Amino acid sequence: LPARLRDPALLALALPLAAALAFSDETLDKVPKSEGYCSRILRAQGTRREGYTEFSLRVEGDPDFYKPVTLSAAPPSYFRGFTLIALKENREGDKEEDHAGTFQIIDEEETQFMSNCPVAVTESTPRRRTRIQVFWIAPPAGTGCVILKASIVQKRIIYFQDEGSLTKKLCEQDSMFDGVTDKPILDCCACGTAKYRLTFYGNWSEKTHPKDYPRRANHWSAIIGGSHSKNYVLWEYGGYASEGVKQVAELGSPVKMEEEIRQQSDEVLTVIKAKAQWPAWQPLNVRAAPSAEFSVDRTRHLMSFLTMMGPSPDWNVGLSAEDLCTKECGWVQKVVQDLIPWDAGTDSGVTYESPNKPTIPQEKIRPLTSLDHPQSPFYDPEGGSITQVARVVIERIARKGEQCNIVPDNVDDIVADLAPEEKDEDDTPETCIYSNWSPWSACSSSTCDKGKRMRQRMLKAQLDLSVPCPDTQDFQPCMGPGCSDEDGSTCTMSEWITWSPCSISCGMGMRSRERYVKQFPEDGSVCTLPTEETEKCTVNEECSPSSCLMTEWGEWDECSATCGMGMKKRHRMVKMSPADGSMCKAETSQAEKCMMPECHTIPCLLSPWSEWSDCSVTCGKGMRTRQRMLKSLAELGDCNEELEQVEKCMLPECPIDCELTEWSQWSECNKSCGKGHMIRTRMIQMEPQFGGAPCPETVQRKKCRIRKCLKNPSIQKLRWREARESRRGEQLREESDGEQFPGCRMRPWTAWSECTKLCGGGIQERYMTVKKRFKSSQFTSCKDKKEIRACNVHPC
Q1: CA–CA separation, 626 vs 168, rounded Å?
Q2: pLDDT, position 32
Q3: Which DSSP symbol is given to 689?
Q4: Residue 68 in contact with residue 369, Cβ under 8 Å?
Q5: What pTM does this model have?
Q6: What residue intervals traverse the membrane (predicted)?
Q7: φ and ψ at 411, to 5 degrees?
């Protein structure tokens, strides 16, 4: 058997609603005592009716091969006892080697091994039941067919089914992967090339796969794949995972896989890569689905890719050898494929976060099923299909060159140029302005276990709020130091510059060259690669009699500058003058540029800034300052650095007192005789704020007394009548001509306005405006007039 088929298979015994069963009274006691107990169980028989199908042994999956099986019968019927046993084909069961596989107990309260026949399983306690479950581990490959038998017990009578629904024959399958990726790959007859876009939609989330969903670290690793010929296989069902596939499956690292793909350069046209996704699922309006573009041609018309579902033992999704060439010698327009996870066969874990458990020997790549293991997050006792965890869409976006088929699919389908090499495109929208990425953090794992590292960037501006901006964090799988193929302590160096001139003009000297560090190690370690090289050099080995013999060059002097660019010199002396007595022409000093640390813009030595002063105000907006002192010497030059800084400060708002208008004129006395009172008012222009002074009174009263009131009512009434007639006459005159004033004629008084308050003392107003000004009038003596009187003075 393939090794994976040796996982426990689930067996369940249950009973449908049964008609009356006819059993014989033959019991185990009637079997001869001399025979083995297991064979006595197998020989215990009962009579049954023809066509009996009420009790059944149900096998999940394909019943003709070793696959996870279920021994089942549905409620509401019941049975009191049962027996399960597995025999090799054509064996009697009286010997230990006749039995095949091993049973495993799930629930000890329900099931147990038989004491007299340990290879069989029976009930723990006789009682009414409708279903039992046990595991059965299949025997090794080469065992041959296996017969699974079940018996039921009712009223202390055993009934065994030698054939039919309570007996199943299971035989080996040559390959459990027949037909999975064994479709024939035809030679491609298409012309030109085609360009495709792969888009990966991860649907794996807590909502779609709630069982044991890993909330903290769920992700899809970086997508890795390629377009290739039929002579190269990245991965396939029934094959063994390469080291590159293993590292993707267990660590989420695409580095080794990419290296393997690029080594097959003759068979590969494009390397397919897309970024990892942390977390595994987010709405498309929050994060765009990752995508990658690739090309195919007549020879390399297949595409394969994979990505790890993390965390997991070694589970992935992907496509293997997807053919994009059609029988009509064209290129496939679109491929949409739902994906279920597959097992790389390198780790034996059964849950998302199982500890590392290498599979030895390595097993073949296989799709996961819902009956692999009860602890699996995809387990379904009914053996249903696994809910898809991702969808991949492959769309043709362009074609180049002369095509064999007649009509292009659309006008934009053929493009002027198609670059086969891969481009690393940035999918950040133009409306999102980011800072540069920070360096990668250290790996979260200090060992060779799986870990991750992170880098960040800052979103500076989002110019269009309707266009979502990608994440500001990026994650990568990683391992501790010394475990990864990528050495985080590697420096990136520039090319060597040209060699310097030889140190002497005659004979043997020295020369040097330099390079610099372009990028320091990502793990923060020190770069140990050399930045300078020296070697010997020889100039004019046979020096003439006029040549000098010089000493070696001395050490370089200190740089002439304390910062920035300067010059340095070195010297040597004439050791022996020319033999012909001529003057030595060899140089005795050399100068070259030197670079010191970058200069500050001003040669100042300053003290630290002082603390900020108190705010210049006790409330509201003010200013505060801080100072520093110049500590450097005056001979270093003028210092233009600021020595004082000023900034705004804000204290609690200042109190605002109540503000009122001026007092109005006193009103008329409210009585025509006797004691009365008159009032004056003022209005509130601003209410007090922030604890300011409250508003004082807005109405004042004072007493008034016009004359004594007469005690004779008749005389009093007469005076009132006279006063009323006098006022009426005056009003009539005003209405006819208006009131006469020096220099102008006035319009009559307006009616009194409504009282400003209903009680507690309000005011009324009336106005008299100028009707006509005489030519000789002075504007100062002829103005509009206003009168105010009290009203509603009774208390509220």
Answers
A1: 93
A2: 37
A3: B
A4: yes
A5: 0.39
A6: none
A7: -65, -35
